């Protein structure tokens, strides 16, 4: 939390609890060296809604982001130790954390959506999943989430049916690749990000379990 006349970090942990950082070019070495393992990464696909500190609001992200994952269903950074209120990887924390000074945000704001690492930057050149990451982006592109609320208001049935088709394709695609490569949840979240039905939940579109998959409805 920002205090009057602040000139240093008070280790309040607010920034870490808001979520892990997006990774940038210089962070690639942290991944290559194994200091930050792949299992601790999550992909935010282009178009997902995220808080943009420059715009000071939630909006579709213009570029793909790979972030440090949260804990359970929370976004709080997986490397934040609540007991010591400190960073477990402080000496090799990512660039965005190193540059973050909440009392003087200019440097960290300049990093927003700039030189961001993507999945393809991180994956080995011979990773057999590269082709499927690209295919998934083409077949199951993140919808225009900024337009979804107006679509639901104006044409509820058509909008829900379009989203349902996308959600079904996304789930079928994932199942096919998960089975083929025996991927666990952490690997799925890195390679393909969150399923589209989970992303839609933030817009009030609920996914209800159904024998044939999930069915969308407006909450
Ligand atoms: S930089 Fe983060 S941990 Fe430090 S005072 Fe600001 S919000 Fe708190
Ligand atoms: S990597 Fe460390 S400094 Fe960065 S958000 Fe996580 S806990 Fe905080």
UniProtKB/TrEMBL annotation:
Organism domain of life: Bacteria
A family per Pfam: CxxCxxCC
Protein name: YkgJ family cysteine cluster protein
Organism: Candidatus Desulfatifera sulfidica
